[in-house]
């Protein structure tokens, strides 16, 4: 019999719950709120059968475009042939986690705003741009002893040591 | 049975064993029910969903209005039956009538906190009939969902006594009269008179009269506290009416004056904190370096 290409084909391990994490899922997943424009990671929870996304979307990150009673609408990029389509799917909240992809950006934004406010108070002009790491500065090598290494002539008798 | 017993739980068993949630292991939380009670519609965002939690211990009744959050459940208001002596009820603090009083107390307390107590008086005269709050013009009534916990919901359970108290107090709790004391399964109707009897403790009064006539010694033993406080079977209704009125008059919570807990002598050394352990490590390194005679002091660079 051929393999079949059903909706959940080839998901035996992908949708399986991790070791010793079976059964009821912790309640924080239900208590989280999502607003339109938030970034979320789609991660299927095999314990909840309703509102599961297709296995393609497992591990993808997208933006929330809709919020319904028990599910979130997420907009995810999918490459189809030569182009990338913005796909809109609806997923139950159990299969969604808040994404940390923008976390570093948001923190940096807040910090930069604070720096700019402080600089303005002092009357300075600062640049909050990130700089790429440059080449390391030059330095003098300290505490090095010089050891001159010269080759020694090859001694057949001693160096063969037994088997030849 | 001394000596060795062949171990049933191998190392392999323990390695693969998945423990249930902590509160499930303790037998305190029914997660199936909890998920369904807490789950709020996502398009209602941060609107809290309040649960009317009723729990019974051997000597006390706890009624709380709780909302869930990721940090933990937040209690908006709570009422205990050990507060009822303040309103004039000293005995029978875990019976159906006390449950009604506790529910009533909690309802009036919450409405006072939310400034709804003038708008929603509820059912002032407890008749035992099924009463649901009608939404007044202006603000909608305070809504909560009954959380019974792990008890078996049989007809006439004290939990529903507390529910009735809260309903008469003016809370909006979706319910049916099927489980109130006095619901006749044959007629499929609530007998309001019987329910009223339970609210005013007349079922206890009847038993008191019965025992006093037929088994005076058992009466003395069983109702000793009632006798001490001088409560007769005929006083029951008037007593509870007074308690209800007192509750409605002043439902605010009394600040409890508790002394700070006594300091006990420590018999074992106190565990160091992370910072203390790091600091002591830096000290030891500095001491080593200085005694070794090295020139650089090891300022911790992590």
Strand and helix layout:
The complex is a heterodimer of chains A (164) and B (302).
Chain A: H1 28-31, E1 39-42, E2 61-67, E3 71-80, E4 83-92, E5 96-98, H2 103-122, H3 156-160
Antiparallel strand pairs in A: 1-2, 1-5, 2-3, 3-4
Chain B: H1 11-16, H2 22-25, H3 31-38, E1 50-56, E2 61-67, E3 74-80, H4 96-113, E4 145-147, H5 158-169, E5 183-184, E6 189-190, H6 192-199, H7 202-214, H8 216-222, H9 224-229, H10 236-249, H11 274-292
CATH superfamily label of one domain in chain A: Ribosomal protein L21
Strand arrangement across the biggest beta sheet of chain B:
3-2-1-4
Spatially, the strands of the biggest sheet of chain A line up as: 4-3-2-1-5
Low-confidence stretches of chain B: none
Q: Find the CATH topology of one domain in chain A.
A: SH3 type barrels
Helix/sheet category of chain A: alpha+beta
Total helix count of chain A?
3
Q: How far apart lie the N and C ends of chain A?
A: 62 Å
The first-level CATH class name of one domain in chain A: Mainly Beta
Determine the fraction of residues in helical runs of chain A and give it as a percent range: 10-25%
**Secondary structure tally, helices of chain B:** 11
> Looking at the chains present, what oligomeric state does this protein adopt?
heterodimer
Note the run of SSEs of chain A as H and E.
Answer: HEEEEEHH
Going by CATH, the architecture of chain B would be 2-Layer Sandwich
User: Tell me, what's the shape of chain B?
Assistant: extended
Level-2 CATH architecture of one domain in chain A: Roll
Overall outline of chain A: flat
Described by strand count, sense and barrel closure, the largest sheet of chain A is: 5 strands, antiparallel
Can you give the mean pLDDT of chain B?
90
Query: How many runs of DSSP E, i.e. beta strands of chain A?
Result: 5
Helix content of chain B: 25-40%
Pfam families (chain B): Ribosomal_L18_c, Ribosomal_L5e
Keywords (chain B): Cytoplasm, Ribonucleoprotein, Ribosomal protein
Subcellular location (chain B): Cytoplasm
GO biological process, one term (chain B): ribosomal large subunit assembly
